[in-house]
Write a structure and sequence with these properties.
The protein has 211 residues and is α+β, with helices and mostly antiparallel strands. The protein has 2 domains: 63 residues, no CATH class; 105 residues, no CATH class. It contains 6 helices and 5 strands. A hairpin with a 5-residue loop joins strand 1 and strand 2.
Length: 211
């Protein structure tokens, strides 16, 4: 039986006490999903086949199914006919990168791609950090997004943020562009904060590459 739910990607950003709190938070999500919302939604009856592996042993004969997943935005694949148009639209704004994966391309003065950074960290982890380890949250934003990000960019004067309170309001804004091409911060530009990732993967292009 699973002893607890570890942080995403087994990152070590928090200590043992916070890891226990994270496991409890994930358990709560499991309970909510299992219960469903049969009163608010039709055919959303309790899901008896959905179980918490920290409370119920997985059967020895359980079969694991392969899950096929395309990280490219589905709405772009459906609405744009060619690959060139699709990539241009997908890279125009991170708002359309909705398949739990976002990326940002860094280009040189000639417009050639030199680095592509991918992130797939879920929002729940960053909400948890905002609630339990705000200083760690700020440090990670500075590491993966920009050194110019400050605590005031992420939290209001009361020390709260829409993400931290579980609200549905738009996240606070920072002085960075939301473009997937330009990653440099500018006092003139403003965009919604997007969680960086502890498991950010970066691919760097060599000068010989043409694009």
């Amino acid at each position: 039986m699973l002893t607890r739910f570890d942080p995403i990607g087994h990152v070590d950003d928090v200590g043992d006490e916070a890891r226990k709190l994270w496991s409890d938070a994930v358990k709560s999500i499991f309970q909510q999903v299992r219960a469903g919302q049969p009163v608010q939604k039709d055919n959303d009856a309790p899901r008896s086949q959905f179980y918490d592996p920290t409370e119920t042993e997985t059967a020895a004969d359980a079969v694991e199914a392969e899950i096929s997943w395309s990280a490219f935005p589905r709405q772009i694949r459906r609405n744009f006919p060619g690959d060139t148009q699709r990539w241009r639209r997908a890279e125009a704004s991170r708002e359309v990168q909705d398949e739990y994966l976002e990326w940002s391309a860094t280009r040189d003065s000639e417009g050639k791609i030199r680095k592509v950074t991918f992130t797939c960290e879920p929002r729940e982890w960053w909400t948890f950090l905002a609630q339990t380890a705000p200083e760690t949250l700020v440090r990670l934003y500075q590491t993966f997004l920009s050194e110019q990000v400050s605590k005031a960019d992420l939290f209001d004067s009361q020390g709260t943020t829409s993400c931290a309170t579980g609200g549905t309001a738009a996240p606070p804004k920072v002085r960075c562009t939301s473009s997937t091409i330009r990653t440099r911060c500018s006092p003139r530009s403003s965009s919604r904060v997007r969680p960086p990732s502890c498991a950010t993967a970066t691919a760097t292009c060599s000068p010989a590459n043409k694009n």
